[in-house]
Amino acid sequence: MALKITVIGTGYLGATHAAAMAEMGFEVLGLDVVPEKVELLSSGRVPMYEPGLEELLAKHVAGIEGSTGRLRFTTSWEEVGAFGDVHFVCVNTPQKHGEYGCDMSYVDAAFASLAPVVRAGSLVVGKSTVPVGSAERLAGVLPEGVDLAWNPEFLREGFAVQDTLHPDRIVVGVPGDDGGRTEKLLREVYAAPIGEGSPLVVTDYPTAELVKTAANSFLATKISFINAMAEVCEAAGGDVVRLAEAIGHDERIGNKFLRAGIGFGGGCLPKDIRAFMARAGELGADQALTFLREIDSINMRRRGQMVEMAREALGGNSFLGRRVAVLGATFKPDSDDVRDSPALNVAGQIHLQGGQVTVYDPKGMENARKVFPTLGYADTALEAVRGADVVLHLTEWREFRELDPAELAAAVSSPVVLDGRNALDGERWRAAGWTYRAMGRPRA
Ligand code: UDX
After folding, report:
1. 277-294: average pLDDT
2. Distance, C-alpha 184 to centroid of its chain
3. Which of 18, 125, 182, 397 is the most buried (most CB within 10 A)?
């Protein structure tokens, strides 16, 4: 009989995983402790913007016309325990308040609720990003006869559906003494992507946990590396975009994740590198990761540098009474996520220094308003730039690349655009009468 799957926690990771498991043919039950979320998902809708996710849910959620009916949601742990052969734990692990370490309270609560109801012979699979050593500890929380695997998730926001259905690798940490039982079951769960050629890496718990934090640390390092080069380019009169292109031709380096700009944000990279440093400290290996401190500070410095670039563009004095248009609020395009968003951070800093900031973002307005209600917001890019003394391009949405610079030039008070993502076509903007400046690039 086909395996029955449960997914505990229905945020980005969980909602996508649940829908993907249904797409792969399994009967799936998703649990969340927030009844409103369960209600929303049960009607085939998601509380965030993620391309393709609502369509996938609608295809499978029970009760929706024409759906396969393979996917349901609940708030009941008893139901989850009785239903599942395999339970995926997908709750989030945010940064602790006022500390670098990660907050394990949602993971701990999920295991505490699951342990009394889980059936003997079933498998629990952790997907949350956790400090190394957690799986070993959590295995001890589960009753005798229930195995634990750790299976980190590498999905990118904006590509969550595709990354989950067609992962570039599947990593599983399994117990060493189960006679291959866990691996066999997970091969069954992931038969579709494995069949398509996704490599499967089977390893122990600590390695599986570390793969995730190592991958995110590497990505963060790549971005901060190119941003450090941008700083040097600025000082030396070089062009970081050409530099990235040139070093990217070396296959050992590669050309991805080398876009200089205002740096990385979001719910993962910043908190993951900090939690990794904190955990290494606890393990007595803090020296190994001191470089991540530098990665973090290069990244945070970018935001301040963008503010200074804007100040300089306004004549080098105060922002008081000056109109600043900000294009972009989310931490990356194709997402409505504003968590630790560099764009919103820059907008906020300028606003707090007295600038009259007006923000426009294609999908992030509602979330941005919640975090920063005192900023000005406009319904379109054109409205945002009306009367602006300077325009800041801070999230690289396609919509912004497709704007007509001539139309915008007619609306602003002064046609100066600062590209914080090195994503606009500078020549096009200059041809339309703009002063175009980008980070780590020559002035004209
Ligand atoms: C990241 C990892 O990529 C993913 O594998 C993991 O599962 C979760 O964390 P995500 O947070 O969705 O995914 O964002 P990502 O695409 O990695 O971008 C992170 C940030 O880096 C964004 O703010 C983006 O704008 C920035 N970035 C990315 C750059 O500044 N330059 C680049 O070249 C690439």
Report:
1. 97
2. 30
3. 18
Residue pLDDT, tens place only, 193-214: 999 999 999 999 999 999 999 9
Confidence of residue 381 (pLDDT cuts 50, 70, 90): very high
pLDDT confidence tier of residue 159, bands split at 50, 70 and 90: very high
Cα 333 to averaged position of ligand 1 atoms, centre (Å)? 10
How far, in Å, from the CA of 378 to the mean position of ligand 1?
26
Q: How many angstroms separate the alpha carbon of residue 432 from the centre of ligand 1?
A: 32
The C-alpha R_g of the chain, in whole angstroms, comes to: 24
Residue 1's pLDDT band, with cuts at 50, 70 and 90, is confident
> Atom 9, ligand 1: which residue's CA is nearest?
268
Position 371 scores a pLDDT of 96
Helix, strand, coil abundance in the chain, percent, nearest 5: 45, 15, 40
Contacts of 12 (CB under 8 A, 6+ apart): 48, 50, 155, 157, 160, 267
| Spatial distance between the Cα atoms of 124 and 414, rounded to a whole number of angstroms | 59
Residue of 312, 338, 326 whose CA lies nearest to 420? 326
Query: What secondary structure letter does DSSP report for 239?
Result: -
- Domains in the chain, please, with CATH? 4-202 (3.40.50.720), 204-444 (3.40.50.720)
Q: Say how far apart CA 310 and CA 91 lie, in whole Å.
A: 39
Separation of 355 CA from ligand 1 center, angstroms?
Answer: 29
4 pLDDT more than 90: yes
Q: Which residues line ligand 1 (CB under 6 A)?
A: 153-157, 216, 219, 223, 257-259, 261, 263-266, 268-269, 331-332
The atom of ligand 1 lying closest to the CA of 265 is 23
Q: Which of 219, 262, 345, 398 to mutate to test the pocket of ligand 1 (most atoms within 8 A of CB)?
A: 219
